[in-house]
Amino acid sequence: MNYEKDRVTIYQVAKASGVSLATVSRVINKQGSVTPATRKKVEDTIARLGYRPSSLAQSLATNRTTNIGVVIPSANYVFISNVLAGITEVARERGYLLTLFATTHSREEALASIEKVISSHVDGVIVFDDQLSKDDVSVITSYNVPAVIIDEQVSGDIVANIHLSYDPLLTSFIKQYYSRRGNKAMSFLHVHNAGRLLQHAEKSFIRNHNELGKEYNIINCDDSYTRTYAQFLEYFKTNRSGLFVCYRDSIGAAVMNAATDSGLNVPNDVEILTLIGTKYARICRPVLSCFHIDMEEVGKRSMYMLIDLINNQLQERTATFDATYSIGESTVDRRGLDPDYK
């Protein structure tokens, strides 16, 4: 029998018992408050399904290996690889080994990664994955594994959080664009399964337009340069102007190149703003205007915080990285944003 394939998971136990993942973890580890009836229901389910918690996971609190788990989406994205570069630099400096758990946009695969983290001999974990909920991440900490969570707020005695702040800057950009007599209709490019960061930005985009009484467009597109470029070649046959808020540099470049190849001028006809700017924004011609957070610094901070958390020395459990506006040539206004604008 293939053990890895057929092994019953903690998620199956929780679903069959009708309780949360955290409750199952408390029963398994004999920690926290669980009613006798709930405990019996979970224990009966464990016996019926044949679930076997990892002995490695249950011994994590007392047996350290200087090994850190890192849960991230595919490192193909530049901003993800920058985070990983920062983590790696500090790990090398402090003498820690890294075990990488790379996922895709599949929630099932992300949950499988949590199972692997639990059964691996790690001292702590850094999680930067949009597919995992607070409850999912709490399962890790219920096994006494310290965790630093990037871009999600999870509470706990052995949890620290890093918040990536884009929304206030996007709000300022939208309000100041219209106050400065920006006259192009704004469109937000919705990428399926792009994660929480883009979801938060899209909600902010919609909310601000509703508050200002301005019309807007939501355009669905693939997370692919080639397909987005082809899509906007068609789009610009009938739509000859607009300001487009794009998820990443490659999507912004696709829109910009499609506009240029359609005989439109950037930024006079078409303006483009990229939410997650990287070094590639500077390579594009015209240079893309973008929001920027130093993701390598995010990776470094997450690793330093985790080491202090492991050693019970972490004072501040939350760190915030605010995006800045890098003014390029793909937007008309070159004055930047007034931080005091209301």
Brief summary of the model shown:
With 342 residues, the chain is α/β, with parallel strands linked by helices. The protein has three domains: 1-53, lambda repressor-like DNA-binding domains (434 Repressor (Amino-terminal Domain), Orthogonal Bundle), CATH 1.10.260.40; 64-164 and 293-311, Response regulator (Rossmann fold), CATH 3.40.50; 167-292, Rossmann fold (3-Layer(aba) Sandwich), CATH 3.40.50.2300. The protein is built from 14 helices and twelve strands.
Describe the structure.
By secondary structure, this protein is of the alpha/beta class. It has three domains: 1-53, Orthogonal Bundle (434 Repressor (Amino-terminal Domain)), CATH 1.10.260.40; 64-164 and 293-311, 3-Layer(aba) Sandwich (Rossmann fold), CATH 3.40.50; 167-292, Response regulator (Rossmann fold), CATH 3.40.50.2300. 44% of the residues lie in helices and 20% in strands. The chain has 14 helices and twelve strands. It has helices at residues 3-6, 10-17, 21-29, 36-49, 55-58, 78-94, 107-119, 134-142, 167-179, 196-212, 225-235, 249-261, 280-283, 295-310, and strands at 67-73, 97-103, 124-127, 147-150, 159-165, 186-191, 216-221, 242-248, 270-276, 289-292, 318-322, 324-326. The strands form two sheets. Strands 2-1-3-4-5-11 form a six-stranded parallel β-sheet, with helices on both faces. Helix 2 (10-17) crosses helix 3 and helix 9 (167-179) runs parallel beside helix 10. It is elongated. The termini are far apart.
